[in-house]
TrEMBL record:
This is Cupin domain-containing protein. Residues 119-175 form the Cupin type-2 domain. It comes from Trinickia violacea. CDD domains: cupin_BLL6423-like. Gene3D superfamilies: 2.20.70.150, Jelly Rolls (2.60.120.10). PANTHER family: CUPIN TYPE-2 DOMAIN-CONTAINING PROTEIN, SLR2101 PROTEIN. InterPro entries: Cupin_2, OryJ/VirC-like, RmlC-like_jellyroll, RmlC_Cupin_sf.
Length: 196
């Protein structure tokens, strides 16, 4: 099963201040993650400050792939996630450093020998994840939630993974917003890391 190509329409302003179409077409940055074949990142847009600069600037998606949003910024992407395979579940953890390195954040991977899924990771951000097509399971340190099209997850910097147990690909839309842990949560995470 393959998903439709994503069309992106970007607006802007002409010299007189009138709204115009700045670009209309396929996304310029679509990358398959080599360590997890079938996982494809479709980079839609990002901002690098808050409040976001409203201008006719260059396309922020061209360049190196980065998992987290920029500091004080946002990132929007679609991700196509293939079904988990027995091979991936048994040996995928060994490939996660490479996978997260390709998306510019090797430190995001939190997988350990006793992790509930090889893709366990954490970013210091608020992430909105929407299931567009297919089915997904949100895996947390303690618990799981089955998701169907239209399900929305508000990820608040928690350790998690996306497990595709459906037997077919899933497409999700993510909007990531740079964040900072509350001091009590930061302290608890630090204590947890020291105890491992």
């Amino acid at each position: 099963m393959s998903f439709p190509t994503i069309r992106r329409v970007v607006t802007g302003h002409d010299i007189a201040g009138r709204a115009v179409v700045a670009s209309d077409g396929p996304l310029p940055t679509v990358v398959e993650i080599a360590a997890i074949p079938g996982t494809v990142f479709h980079e839609v847009w990002s901002t690098s400050e808050s409040p976001a600069a409203v201008n006719n600037g260059a396309d922020p998606t061209v360049g190196a792939l980065m998992l987290p949003p920029p500091k004080q910024g946002t990132r929007m992407r679609f991700v196509d996630i293939p079904p988990d395979t027995p091979e991936f579940l048994a040996h995928g953890a060994a490939k996660m450093h490479d996978a997260f390195s390709q998306v510019g954040d090797a430190e995001a991977s939190t997988v350990k020998a006793n992790s509930p899924h090889p893709l366990m990771h954490r970013t210091e951000s608020i992430d909105y994840g929407v299931v567009i097509e297919g089915e997904m399971t949100l895996v947390l340190d303690d618990g799981e939630v089955a998701l169907k099209p239209g399900s929305v997850v508000i990820q608040r910097g928690t350790n998690h993974a996306w497990a595709n147990r459906s037997g077919r690909p899933c497409r999700m839309l993510f909007v990531l917003i740079d964040g900072a842990y509350h001091p009590a949560i930061a302290a608890a995470l630090h204590t947890l890391a020291e105890g491992e």
